[in-house]
Design goal:
Blueprint lengths: L7 H26 L6 H22 L3 H4 L7
Helix pairs in contact: 1-2
C-alpha cells in the first residue's frame, strides 16, 4: 500500500517538475512533427511524457518511489 512519505514542499516540487516535463515533451513532439529533428524525437517525447505523468502521480498521492525504496531525497 502506498503510504504518504513526502511533505507539502516535496509534493509541490514534484508537481511543478511533472508539469515542466510534460511541456518539454509536447515541445519536442511538435518540433519533431514539423520536421526540425528526426523521428527519434517522438520516442524522447513519449519517454519524457511518461516521466512527467508519473511525477504528477507522485505529487497527487504524496508518495515518492525513491523514498519508498529507502533512498534519502533532500526534500
Amino acid at each position: 500500500m502506498m503510504k504518504c512519505n513526502i511533505n507539502r514542499k516535496g509534493r509541490m516540487v514534484r508537481f511543478y517538475s511533472g508539469l515542466f516535463d510534460l511541456v518539454i515533451a509536447v515541445g519536442i513532439g511538435l518540433v519533431t512533427l514539423v520536421g526540425m529533428i528526426e523521428s527519434w524525437g517522438y520516442i524522447a517525447a513519449g519517454i519524457l511524457g511518461m516521466i512527467g505523468l508519473f511525477t504528477l502521480f507522485e505529487a497527487m498521492k504524496g508518495w515518492c518511489v525513491l523514498r519508498a525504496m529507502g533512498v534519502r531525497t533532500p526534500l
